[in-house]
Design brief:
The chain is α/β, with parallel strands linked by helices. The chain is 31% helix and 24% strand. The protein has helices at 13-24, 74-86, 130-146, 164-178, 210-223, 257-265, 284-287, 318-336, and strands spanning 3-8, 29-36, 44-47, 50-56, 67-70, 90-93, 124-126, 148-157, 229-236, 243-251, 270-272, 293-300, 307-314. The strands form two sheets. It has a seven-stranded mixed beta sheet with strand order 3-4-2-1-5-6-7, sandwiched between helices. A six-stranded mixed beta sheet has the order 9-8-10-13-12-11. Bound molecules: adenosine-2'-5'-diphosphate.
Length: 337
């Protein structure tokens, strides 16, 4: 069966990648409708060698659509995901808008694919935050092995997570610096080139940013265990594609590095790249354009009895957003629609 698919936010960094993922993975697309704002009127995008005009999103955009992939920001999702669902589409939403709604499943196919069944209530499935996705893909097998009690994570997040405009800002600032001009900061509150910012999304009353709290709450929801304690610090770095993370975990049962490595070696969506003696460890440049989450620097935490340290890297636009959404759509198509 072929499906009528819409991509809402098709001209954005993630939307563009969604179109590419549908093509690469040969998703059974019968019709592809590309939606964006007024600003994109007249634009055309290419899918399987065919030019498709971008349509301006409105109340009637989802007529006949069966699967709608959204990545056009939280306010667009808030207003239009219910419109798409009402028109009969199943929405896979990449924004933060619906993630913590108890009636909306929050899904990483390698971790909790069965949660997809819950889509029938609202017609919406939420795609988690990029940093959360790559972390739970790696931590779920360790949780099954040893029981995770607490996670302390620091992220090193690429500018592409902010959208196309942030990639342009980083490149513009680097060019200005090399030409001896004063770089301009519009997207971020401070210069991102030759710098980094311990600030992603807005600050909250408890001192954490919203991005950091997404990692806490979404991890518990996806792994289905509210007792897992999480403390996160999220940092924006001048990298184009690929989020990296240092993750320190405390486990209930003591496990060796070899046991962790063996569990990760057979985990879906994970690739162990860990041979420090030969300078082998993952980096964002190497993870960019790939769909796996790479893990290296696996070691026992010398500061506690039952703890492991890890280094994770994944492409935030692919596994962190578009690929994960298309994987969800694939399961929907195969098992539910
Ligand atoms: P447009 O290109 O027309 O502005 P990014 O995350 O890279 O910034 O991309 C955001 C995506 O969401 C773009 O495709 C953008 O379209 C789309 N978008 C943003 N606001 C709206 C809106 N109000 N209605 C429809 N699409 C929107």
């Amino acid at each position: 069966k072929l499906y009528k698919v819409a991509v809402c936010g098709a001209t954005g960094a993630v939307g563009n990648q969604m179109i590419q993922c549908l093509e690469e993975r040969d998703f059974p697309v019968g019709e592809l409708r590309l939606l964006a704002s007024e600003r994109s009127k007249g634009k055309k995008l290419t899918y399987k060698g065919e030019e498709i005009p971008v349509q301006v999103l409105d109340e009637n955009s989802f007529e006949g659509i069966e699967i709608a992939l959204f990545s056009a920001g939280a306010s667009t999702s808030k207003n239009f995901a219910p419109v798409a669902a009402k028109a009969g589409a199943v929405v896979v939403d990449n924004s933060s808008c619906w993630r913590m709604d108890p009636l909306v499943p929050l899904v990483v196919p390698e971790v909790n694919p069965k949660a997809i069944a819950g889509y029938t209530t609202k017609g919406i499935i939420a795609n988690p935050n990029c940093s959360t996705i790559q972390m739970v893909v790696v931590l779920q097998p360790i949780h099954e092995l040893a029981g995770i009690e607490r996670i302390v994570v620091s992220t090193y997040q690429a500018v592409s997570g902010t959208g196309q405009k942030a990639i342009v800002e980083l490149e513009g600032q680097l060019k200005a610096l090399h030409e001896g001009r004063q770089p301009e900061a519009k997207v971020y509150p401070k210069q991102i080139a030759w710098n980094l910012l311990p600030h992603i999304d807005v600050f909250q009353d408890n001192g954490y940013t919203k991005e950091e709290m997404k990692m806490v709450l979404e991890t518990q929801k996806i792994m289905g265990d509210d007792s897992i304690k999480v403390s996160a610090t999220c940092v924006r770095v001048p990298v184009r594609y690929g989020h990296s993370e240092t993750v320190n975990i405390a486990t209930k049962k003591k496990v060796s590095v070899d046991e962790v490595r063996a569990a990760l070696a057979k985990a879906p969506g994970v690739k162990v790249v860990d041979d420090p003696a030969n300078l082998v460890y993952p980096t964002p440049l190497e993870a960019a354009g790939q769909d796996l989450t790479y893990v290296g620097r696996i070691r026992e935490d010398i500061s506690q009895d039952k703890g492991i340290d890890l280094w994770l890297v994944a492409d935030n636009i692919r596994k962190g957003a578009a690929t994960n959404a298309v994987q969800i759509a694939e399961i929907l198509a195969t098992d539910y629609l």
